[in-house]
Specification:
The protein is of the alpha/beta class. It contains 7 helices and 6 strands. The chain has a 6-stranded parallel beta sheet with strand order 1-2-3-4-5-6. Helix 2 links the parallel strand 2 and strand 3.
Length: 245
């Protein structure tokens, strides 16, 4: 199930109130919990949680409450790294996850790294960009809590490239696959028996993700084809490293 605390138009919070977001989160988890429990395989809730303007303490208080709700209703919840939400940028990850209110308490994340690339207007390249010196540590910390990946490639000016097979985005694609493999390795090291990944390329339009041609608003690629090709490559990349013949 997909939930959004204090959902606005189309998916972003119209309020920054901590208590309001907490109440919204519990309401959605309660509503979804029975449906999730009926899933024969892999049921859980993915949440767009909280508000990007909160400080570390407010974010940690919300997430501590979210863990209590997760336990109360007996369902698994992943919190997505999404714009306008708690984990909207990579620099907030370490302070929040190190906070005493949630440290070591089993918080689970969904890594949608395309949002971070968009927010920071760059792929993270610590070998060639001094600004990214802390990226390997941030990625490892994220990977240690990551139970789900939204495998969409972002670029400096948007959360979704037009076509991930286009030559002009080879660099962005290569970096994203390296990051996803780091996450998969961390999951394997934790003893995970499965890795949940979604080639989450979104539709065109307003609001939308797939870029369109000005005036006509015709998509620059066929969404179904992009998703299918991405699925095939994800399976191939994963299998080449983790599946033994």
């Amino acid at each position: 199930c997909q939930i959004h605390t204090c959902v606005g138009q189309p998916m972003y919070p119209p309020t920054n109130g901590l208590e309001t977001h907490k109440a919204s989160f519990e309401e959605w988890v309660k509503e979804c919990s029975e449906l999730v429990k009926r899933a024969k395989y892999g049921g859980w809730i993915n949440s767009h949680s909280g508000f990007d303007g909160w400080g570390t303490d407010e974010a940690a208080l919300f997430l501590s409450f979210a863990l209590e709700v997760e336990e109360r209703y007996g369902v698994k919840v992943t919190h997505e790294t999404h714009r306008q939400r708690i984990f909207w940028n990579p620099f907030s990850v370490k302070p929040i996850l190190s906070h005493s209110a949630i440290k070591g308490k089993g918080l689970k994340l969904n890594a949608d790294l395309s949002h971070w690339v968009c927010v920071c207007s760059r792929v993270f390249d610590p070998e060639n960009d001094g600004r990214d010196a802390e990226w390997p540590e941030t990625l490892e910390l994220l990977a240690s809590r990551c139970d789900y990946v939204h495998a969409r490639v972002g670029f400096a000016h948007g959360p979704q490239v037009g076509d991930p097979d286009a030559k002009e985005v080879e660099k962005e694609v290569a970096f994203h696959y390296d990051w996803w493999k780091t996450i998969w390795r961390a999951q394997a090291a934790r003893g995970c028996q499965e890795c949940w990944v979604c080639p989450e390329y979104g539709p065109p339009g307003r609001p939308g993700y797939l870029p369109v041609i000005p005036h006509t608003e015709q998509p620059v690629a066929e969404l179904k084809d992009v998703v299918e090709r991405s699925k095939v490559r994800l399976l191939a990349e994963f299998s080449s490293e983790f599946v033994q013949e």
